[in-house]
Amino acid sequence: MIGTGGIYKGGFTMMAIVPVAAAALTTKGATIATSQPAVWHFFGYPFEAAGMIAALFGCVAARFWIGAAQAVRQEHRWSLDMPVTAMAVALSAALIISRRPEPLGALMYGAGVGVLGEGVFKLAEAYVRKGTTALGLNDSASD
């Protein structure tokens, strides 16, 4: 036999279940909250934080690895390697902002740009020469 205490417990249980069931019927799709990637902005350009952190880590790690292996330039390491590292980090950040890759792809972009090192300056020089030639600004006597 159910006493009055059992009726109240059943009533309170029903009062707790009914709103949850009503909410489940009215929602469309999943009822579990899903997390969204953190999106940061740099001068109005959005990018995912995880990709940027992965790319910058990959770039700095590659530059450190290459710099540590170059015993010839140890005494001038910071004066020679810091501008190259700064340019590689800036290029990695620009790639991530423009491409918006997944974190693994961003890590590969950053490490690849870090390994390029001084080649980044040569690529930039070739890019500028190609642009000035296309615009007719390149002096043929300097070639």
Distance linking N and C termini: 104 Å
- Uncertain segments are none
Specify the biggest β-sheet. 2 strands, antiparallel
| Tally of strands | 2
Strand content: 5-15%
- Count of DSSP H/I helices: 5
Cα-atom radius of gyration? 29 Å
User: What's the rounded overall pLDDT mean?
Assistant: 79
Shape: flat
**Topology pattern, helix = H, strand = E:** HEEHHHH
Placed side by side, the strands forming the largest sheet appear as 1-2
Structural class by SSE content: mainly alpha
Q: How much helix, percentage-wise, in residues? A: 55-70%
**What oligomeric arrangement do these chains adopt?**
single chain
Provide the fold topology.
Blueprint: H1 4-26, E1 39-42, E2 45-48, H2 49-69, H3 77-99, H4 103-116, H5 119-135
Antiparallel strand pairs: 1-2
Keywords: Membrane, Transmembrane, Transmembrane helix
Transmembrane segments: 45-66
Summary tags:
flat; mainly alpha; 2 strands; two-stranded antiparallel sheet; 143 residues; transmembrane helix; single chain; membrane; transmembrane
